[in-house]
Amino acid sequence: MPATDLRRVRRWLWAAVALVAVAASVALWRPAPKNQVAEDYASAFGGPFSLTDTQGRTVTDATLRGKPFAIFFGFTHCPDVCPTTLQMMVRLRQNLGADGDRLNIVFVSVDPERDTPAEIGHYLTMFDTPIIGLTGNPAQLKAIVDAYHVFYEKVPIEGGDYVVDHTASVFLMDADGRFFSTLDHKEGEAPKLAKLKRLLREG
């Protein structure tokens, strides 16, 4: 067989192999079931933890179940993001009217060096609304920040003091402790309120 014809046959053979491979991959691929996608989304954030509240009592992920909650990570010496976010959450809960009582707000301090349970309790009185304040030792905090994929880092500043850089999102969890959505500081209050209403309706 001439070399030209041989090359042509080889090209046809390789084309046939490629078509078979594509057909096999299409036949084998199946989209993930919708319920599996929903399950993966709901388990993307959250998980087991054990912390201490402002009264010195142990609070776990199981303790919070039974009621949807919004959880935020910060520290009491935070100059802007933390108080602004907590004030926003208080305002949103008030805007929910009577349904606001069905939502817990949870504040987790990522500054265990300074934020004792008593210090957190004093700090939260500024917001004049029930907020669950939590803290723990470094190992306990690592467990919850890993579960929620939260970043925090101690940053020295002038004068020997420090601040804590941290994730600023609010995580919305349903009554079973499953992830529902987040509130981002860049969102307007109307879409945030709509998310909370949907959480209370569905979660």
UniProtKB/TrEMBL annotation:
<protein>
    <submittedName>
        <fullName>SCO family protein</fullName>
    </submittedName>
</protein>
<keyword id="KW-0812">Transmembrane</keyword>
<dbReference type="InterPro" id="IPR003782">
    <property type="entry name" value="SCO1/SenC"/>
</dbReference>
<keyword id="KW-0186">Copper</keyword>
<dbReference type="Pfam" id="PF02630">
    <property type="entry name" value="SCO1-SenC"/>
</dbReference>
<dbReference type="InterPro" id="IPR036249">
    <property type="entry name" value="Thioredoxin-like_sf"/>
</dbReference>
<comment type="similarity">
    <text>Belongs to the SCO1/2 family.</text>
</comment>
<keyword id="KW-1133">Transmembrane helix</keyword>
<feature type="domain" description="Thioredoxin">
    <location>
        <begin position="17"/>
        <end position="203"/>
    </location>
</feature>
<keyword id="KW-0472">Membrane</keyword>
<feature type="transmembrane region" description="Helical">
    <location>
        <begin position="12"/>
        <end position="29"/>
    </location>
</feature>
<dbReference type="InterPro" id="IPR013766">
    <property type="entry name" value="Thioredoxin_domain"/>
</dbReference>
